[in-house]
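mind reviewing this stuff:

——
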Amino acid sequence: MREYSCADIVLWQKKTRQFIRSGSSVKKLFFSLKGSKLPYDLNSIKRKLFNMKKTIRRILFKAAAAAIIVFAISEAIAQQSSDKLLYKYEAINTHSQIYDKSCIPSSIEMVLKLNKKVDANFYNYQKIWENKMDGTFGNFDNLLLNGIRFHRKFNTVRDNKFPLQNLFKTIDTELSNGRYVIVSLPSGYGWHMYVITDKLPNGEFVAYSKNGKENLIETNVKQIITKAKGTDIMTYRLE
């Protein structure tokens, strides 16, 4: 039997690795190996390499197809979930914002209705407020209304130093204890008040508001707040 030197083996391995990395054709590999002294069955090598390439292509194709299917299903589920969430709460469905600028008292009334403290036709605080332009959460801070005391929190400068993680942790705590959170979110050139009701599996918060009788919903509240560099909220306690 012929003996082969280490140099012959290294040459064969080197050329094979170069072929794999470069994606060269099988024919080029054969020509590059002809100068070596190693025995090889060209037809056998050819079949194995072609089968390997076919297997790799098949795996990549299946992976790409699977990724497309998963993406399509995820999008469909997300849309379906959003549609389902939109009308989740009867207290929100039947509520209305009755003035253009009454979103703050409207959100207060939504919380009262979600907690079954007032009936569906209760609009007392919006009627008092009407289209007040200079109001804030401060107008309701520490007030006891219909058995619920409201508290304003995170009334601080909205910038890169805003304590976003503390804010999100506070919202998490309120939701985990079965309470809702009123939040101010950017809307057009101003701000609009929403009520955070749920946390999604991806960690995002779901918030509702009203435009007249129309339901509004945001399912990426954290992202919105982060982009705005903070916001203030209202929490509450039952008394």
Remarks:
- The chain has two domains: 6-83, 87-238.
- Residues 1-5, 36-40 have pLDDT under 50 and may be disordered.
